[in-house]
Amino acid sequence: MKWSEISIHTTQEAVEPISNILHEAGASGVVIEDPYELEKERDNIFGEIYELNPNDYPKEGVIVKAYLPINSFLGETIEGIKEAINNLLIYDIDLGRNEISISEVNEEEWATAWKKYYHPVKISEKFTIVPTWESYEPVHTDELIIELDPGMAFGTGTHPTTVLCIQALERTVQKGDQIIDVGTGSGVLSIAAAMLGAKKVIAVDLDPVAVESARLNVKLNKVQEIVEVKQNNLLDDFHEPVDLIVANILAEVILRFHYDAAKLLKNGGYFITSGIIQNKKNEVRDALLEAGFTIEETLVMEDWVSFIARK
Ligand SMILES: C[S@@+](CC[C@H](N)C(=O)[O-])C[C@H]1O[C@@H](n2cnc3c(N)ncnc32)[C@H](O)[C@@H]1O
């Protein structure tokens, strides 16, 4: 099959919302070329894995690439993507150059293009994320390893918004907890919650591609007895009280269901939110306080913020 590669030159802060737009438009395998990756200091243990070629990265800004099947709707899909990206300006998201180019690639190139950027990464005190196609020997005996094949869903596990959520889960999950993961993507947060001792995790996503990917990764990590994945809009039709709700989703979406989260949580339960770009931080914090939460911790990485809120 022939694929079209759409390449968007943008900013760090726009990577996440643009990736979401691309996924929603049916794109497969988003690749992020961020020169920051070249500067990051890396543990020796990962040194040999991280041989990044500077020629693959822009000098400034970030390039987001995605792959769309070439069919009769391609023109409209691309127009829709451009419009949705331009709409991000309404939310004060800096789009940088916002240069968009399109080229054709064949199936083979597409299937491997994004994989070359994705390697084992230690993302928190306890967790290392390992792509299914890499072999990895644990460094510490108590290291928790999540094997992932995100396929076409969001969630390689290494995005700052995901890392912040996993760090927050490490601090809050108690043995025996009942948890809901809203917008599970590849299922990475549900898998982490299960490995941290949760008794039951319900992982929901609106996107059927994500649901399929999460189910696959849940099995891959042998937590299918604990994690149930289903297609659902946010917290619709949930009534049983839970101990913790985690959501790595855009700020605008969090503000659509924070009252539902407050209602559903047991007293003392945690609401972990991530996917919040710095300039939305105050708006989300105020909304959480208004819904009756107290903010226990605010975690920050690059331009992203995550809240550990408590009912
Ligand atoms: C930023 S990704 C997070 C993926 C994963 N949880 C992670 O942390 O890497 C956000 C996910 O939310 C899903 N999503 C967006 N709107 C949703 C909604 N209304 N209900 C459920 N899921 C939604 C998207 O399909 C996407 O998979």
TrEMBL record:
Question: Mind telling me which SUPFAM superfamilies this protein's record contains?
Answer: S-adenosyl-L-methionine-dependent methyltransferases
List the EC numbers from the record: 2.1.1.-
Q: What class of enzyme is it?
A: transferase
**Which of UniProt's keywords are assigned here?**
Cytoplasm, Methyltransferase, Ribonucleoprotein, Ribosomal protein, S-adenosyl-L-methionine, Transferase
Give the UniProt subcellular location, in the record's own words: Cytoplasm
Which residues are the signal sequence here?
none
UniProt-annotated binding residues for S-adenosyl-L-methionine: T162, G183, D205, N248
Biological process annotations from GO: methylation
* Primary subcellular site in the record, as a coarse category: cytoplasm
Report the domain of life of the source organism. Answer: Bacteria
User: Which catalytic reaction applies to this protein?
Assistant: L-lysyl-[protein] + 3 S-adenosyl-L-methionine = N(6),N(6),N(6)-trimethyl-L-lysyl-[protein] + 3 S-adenosyl-L-homocysteine + 3 H(+)
What would be one Gene Ontology cellular-component term for the protein?
ribosome
The GO molecular function terms of this record are: methyltransferase activity
Q: What does this protein do?
A: Methylates ribosomal protein L11.
PANTHER family in the record, alphabetically? ELECTRON TRANSFER FLAVOPROTEIN BETA SUBUNIT LYSINE METHYLTRANSFERASE (PTHR43648:SF1)
Family statement drawn from the similarity comment of this UniProt entry: Belongs to the methyltransferase superfamily. PrmA family.
Q: Which NCBIfam families match?
A: prmA (TIGR00406)
Task: State the protein's name.
Answer: Ribosomal protein L11 methyltransferase
- Organism placement in taxonomy: Bacteria, Bacillati, Bacillota, Bacilli, Bacillales
